[in-house]
C-alpha cells in the first residue's frame, strides 16, 4: 500500500476488502451500542449526574461513529467498483477522515467510561435500583432491570466496543491513505 502506486486491479481488491470489513465493523459497533443502551443506559442516564451523562454521550457518539464507519465502507465499496469519478475519491477521503476521528473520540470516551465505572464500582449503573448492593437487589422488586449482570454486561459490551472502535480507526485510516493515493495528494 505505501510501497508505491498499485495497479487499478489491486486498488479495487484492497478497497473492496477494506470496505467490507468497515461494513461489518460498523454494523457490529452499532449493535453493541444498541445493546448497551437497551440493557443499562436507558435506565441510568440522567442530566443531573455527570457520570451517567458521560455514559449517554459516549454511547450516542459510538452509534454516530458506527454510522460513519458504515458510510465509509459503502464509499470504499463504490470506489472499488468505479475508480474513475473524483467525487467518489473525495467522498471516501472525507468519510474516512470523519470516521477515524469519530472512532478515536469514542475510543477515548469509552476508556473514560470504563475507568469511571471501575472507579465507582458500578454504583452509577445501579442508581435506578433502590438497593445499592447488587447481591441484595435480586430480592428487591424496585429495580427496572436485572442488577446482577448489568455491571459485568456493560463492561463486556464496552470492551467489545473498544475493540470495534480500534478496528474502525485502523481501517478508516487505511481508506484515508488509499483515497490520498488515488487523488495523488
Automatic annotation (TrEMBL):
It is a multi-pass membrane protein. It comes from Melanocharis versteri (Fan-tailed berrypecker). Keywords: Membrane, Transmembrane, Transmembrane helix. Its main location: membrane. It is found in: Membrane. The chain crosses the membrane at residues 20-40, 60-79, 91-116, 157-180. InterPro entries: Beta-casein-like. This is TMM54 protein. GO terms for cellular component: membrane. It comes from the Eukaryota. Belongs to the TMEM54 family. It holds the Pfam family BCLP.
